[in-house]
Amino acid sequence: MTATAYSALIFDLDGTLIDSAPDIARAVNACFAARGWPELEVAYVESYIGNGPRRLIADILVDRGLPSDPETVDAAMKGYLDAYSQDPAGRCRLFDHVREDLAALHGAGIRLGICTNKPHELTARILDLLHLARYFDVALGADAVPACKPDPGHLLAVAEAMQLEPGTYAYVGDTRVDQATAQAAGIPFFVVPWGTGPGVEVPAQNRLSRLADLIAPTAIAAQ
After folding, report:
1. HSE (CB half, 13 Å, CA atoms) of 54?
2. Choosing from 12, 14, 23, 178, which is the catalytic residue?
3. What CATH code would you report for 6-16+94-212?
4. If we measure between CA atoms, which residue out of 177, 71, 70 comes closest to residue 118?
5. Where in the chain is CATH 1.10.150?
6. Model pLDDT for residues 179-220, shown as the tens digit of each residue
7. Any alpha helices (H) in the chain, and if so which ranges?
8. Global pTM exceeds 0.90
9. CATH class name, domain 20-84
10. 143 labelled catalytic
11. Where in the chain is the domain with CATH 3.40.50.1000?
12. Which region holds residue 41: left if phi is over 0, alpha if psi is between -120 and 50, else beta?
């Protein structure tokens, strides 16, 4: 099946549809400042995004040589999420053409979903704040499923909630975690050209230039 033949698409969120790194870094730094820990650059924090909030905090603490026992990680994660929830989309932006391409995909009759390691409630709030919620049938955050990405059950849970048949949909992301999730689920994977996408190795036909690449030519002609 080619990229233009799917009746549904499931997307990652951070780094795929939205550049949320500045908001995430702001929240991490607010958490760190409250504990007397050093401020971090956005690009540094961005390199740890993709495995959910606990791994984000734990991996940074280990890398910086800061206390990383479970109790400290749990407390720091709570501080991070509290700071993040205060203003979850204040510095966020959509990547190039994402809004218009989501509208075009939706208008072409392609059903859309989200599978993200961001907490579920924050995911819903951000989609609302960015006026994107209208395009998605289902969006499941990490804490809405028993095990999150790279566990394939997370992606398959989105597909099940959307009542999708195998072979009718693909997953779109920007990280090796996204790629591994799709592979484990037996789902075709496409990578975006932004975020960490350029560093993910895929066949040329699975590398997008923009989301509109996933619209069938016949659907475009019918609009």
Report:
1. 10
2. 12
3. 3.40.50.1000
4. 177
5. 20-84
6. 999 999 999 999 999 989 999 999 999 999 999 999 964 333
7. 21-34, 42-46, 53-63, 70-86, 98-107, 120-129, 152-161, 176-185, 217-222
8. yes
9. mainly alpha
10. no
11. 6-16+94-212
12. beta
